[in-house]
Amino acid sequence: YDKDLSGYSLGQGGYYSPQEYLSFAIPVMWRERTENWSWELGASGSWSHSRTKTMPRYPLMNLIPTDWQEEAARQSNDGGSSQGFGYTARALLERRVTSNWFVGTAIDIQQAKDYAPSHFLLYVRYSAAGWQGDMDLPPQPLKPYAND
């Protein structure tokens, strides 16, 4: 995080890397299960602050053609700071239909400025060996590939 390389010009990484980042969150969660049901309800509120430095638009001058280096050296990406609030709400529910079959649903709502990766899921799970023991606590739904 020494350099902010979040730009998309030559020599930048295209990933967010602030020089300062501070975040506070307050999560609340409730989980329970019965013989054939398992569920989880959760919510969280958060506040965050970040700061980036002004950085050269083209940090690797040796990649710039010699004729253009003087102009490229004058260009920069302005730094700055930002802060904001966000929240998350989550609900998971799973039911054992038979010892082999389970059905479930999940919803995950996340909201912050310029970021809202919310999901909704319905699923059916089959267990070849069958299971009559305790339900998973919390339920274990499928995860979107991008979340791993």
From TrEMBL:
GO terms for biological process: cellulose biosynthetic process. The keyword tRNA-binding does not apply. It comes from the Bacteria. The lineage of its organism: Bacteria, Pseudomonadati, Pseudomonadota, Gammaproteobacteria, Enterobacterales. The keyword Hydrolase does not apply. Transmembrane segments: none annotated. Coiled coil: none annotated. InterPro entries: BCSC_C. This is Cellulose biosynthesis protein BcsC. Residues 1-127 form the Cellulose synthase operon C C-terminal domain. Keywords: Repeat, Signal, TPR repeat. GO terms for cellular component: outer membrane.
